[in-house]
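I am still getting used to backbone structure tokens and would like to learn alongside you. Label the sequence line and the structure token line clearly, so we can match residues to local backbone shapes. Would you write everything just below, so we can both look at the same thing?
***
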Amino acid sequence: QVQLVESGGGLVQPGGSLRLSCAASGKMDIIYNMRWHRLPPGKQRELVASVTSDGSTNYADSVKGRFTISRDNAKNMLYLQMGSLKPEDTAVYYCNVDYRDIRTGRYYSWGQGTQVTVSS
């Protein structure tokens, strides 16, 4: 069974930085896209950033130039470096992995989330 565990969230002042990590474990023969989503309070979940297996990245307009997504394929790790944080970045952040088990098929797996709060 695939497990995703996020870490690195917390309380930070506006303008500050945080680095989120997501450790993926379990049987994943091929890992395709890895993504960070977030769920702001009272709002719908939104895609923050994604990275393909070859390292191509995409970002939501709201985080472009402030956030950087990266992955370590050897360690099955996903990261999100967040800078110039704003109160509107406050949310639960979730990692999501798109992978294939060659015996059973293709799946999406989600972590349990990590809270990021930006406040003075």
User: Anything to note?
Assistant: DSSP finds no helices and eleven strands in the chain. The radius of gyration is 14 Å.
